[in-house]
Amino acid sequence: HYQNFKDVEFADPAQLQRLSVRLTSNEEVADLAALCPNLTSLYVDYIHGVTDYAKLAELKHLDAFGLVADDDLSWLSALGTVKHLSIDDYKGGVDYSVLYGMPGLESLDIARGKNLKDIGFVTSMPNLRHFALNHSIVISLQPLANTSTLQSLYLGYNRELQDLSALGTLTGLR
What we know:
seven-stranded parallel β-sheet, elongated
């Protein structure tokens, strides 16, 4: 783990498959995509000063992606190969509607979703197997009802959660 991607020299960055990084410029995003085309897992623990995420879509092998989120996540839907997504909404301003456009997700972890009120986006994820929701203000799990693919569900510190009726319909939980 390191501070800035462009300040680190790798013997052969094209061989990297998993990486945790801080991105502080559009140039670093472009460098990452160009130098590490075989990444399968990427975690971005700090994004500041980045306005163009389009180059991340060039990571054609990217299966797992996690980030400490900025407010605008509209670009996430361009990551079509991602099956495992982790979002840490540390500022509490994320617009989660982009998740409606990510039907290929199999695993979704949302941490510190302080302004997340509705999880309706899960209805557009027919292959969702794992869902973790922490520190949200979601009131109901009803959108999860009859999600037969769901095998794992973690709910932590969702203090507004009232309607748990969907739990009885989740026959795939293990």
